[in-house]
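## retry 2 of 3
previous attempt timed out at serialization; input unchanged, resubmitting
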Amino acid sequence: MTKTHTYTNINPIPALTWNWLRLNRATLETDVPETGGTITVTGARDGITYTKNGTDLAARLPVMKSGAGEDADAVMKAFSTVPAALHAKSDAEPQGSSDSEKTSSVPVLVRMQAEDKKSLVTSHVIIAEPNSIITVIMVYTSASDASGFCAEQTKIWAKENAFVHLVKVNLLGARFTHLDDTAVYCEDRASVTFTQIELGGQKSYAGLGTTLAGYQSSFKSDTAYHSRTSQFLDMNHAVWHKGAKTDTQMHVKGVVADEAVKIYRGTIDFQRGCAGATGDEQEETLLLSPSAVNKSIPMILCDEEDVSGTHGATIGRLSADELFYMQSRGISEAEAKQMMSRAKIAAVAHLIPNQSIVTEIEAYLDKTEA
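## retry succeeded, writing output
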């Protein structure tokens, strides 16, 4: 039996702005049928365990905020979702001496295959013990013309000196509604990297919330999107600096084409006690249609004096000079737009430590751009 679910406080902005801008929050309304779909997990091994019922581990998590807000928790409760858990033990894969060496040799791949006219709602807990490393890749897929509802909530607890790389790739069908919620909590010198590709679905809501609680903890995110036809993409990324000398680097880039609508809220919040903290937030948006709608609100909040924060948003279109240059070399306007769109996605996709997933992203673009 199909049920109607309505949530009026998805992706709430940390500090309210004028209501008439309609940027303070999003409303998610979807008719979803019975549950269906499959979840497959590969790559778990000695030192990194996977548990289908991770309720006990989830109960140990510290209090953390997510980007999608409390309504995301309500979605999980409405579907009686039981969290699965990925647990990386201490020194399972010791960190190298440089950032380039901080990578899990074999990523854990979580593939969520949604079914047409069904709902697939999942929840995962990722716990990285002190000095451990874990890389997790989550991919959402379905038939290209499928409809339904897909939701995932991920909570990450990175303990002292741990390193976590989480990748999320949305390749859902053209008529899906998608909710993706991520919450991160970092202890002393813990580091989390987040890589996100948003391509699929009719309506997509992506929330990301990070609490840098520990001394010298850090967070880095790279997000790419391509919104086209009549797609709607709503994103809310927020980082709360609590520990001293913490660092944030957030980068979002993508394309809005046709009659698509994209909203991005990006917040860095320097809270009292985070002396010496640094943060940088940058967004690049390419508009490929006069009917495309983009709304961006980069924001820095500050309650501590000794901090350094920068942010910026670049929004533009292909200029007549750029088009002329490409056309003079035999590249049509349509091909030029496709090249620029692909470049945005490729710049982030190359950060995914799994070539088969990168190839799958390219194949998805080939199909949707045909």
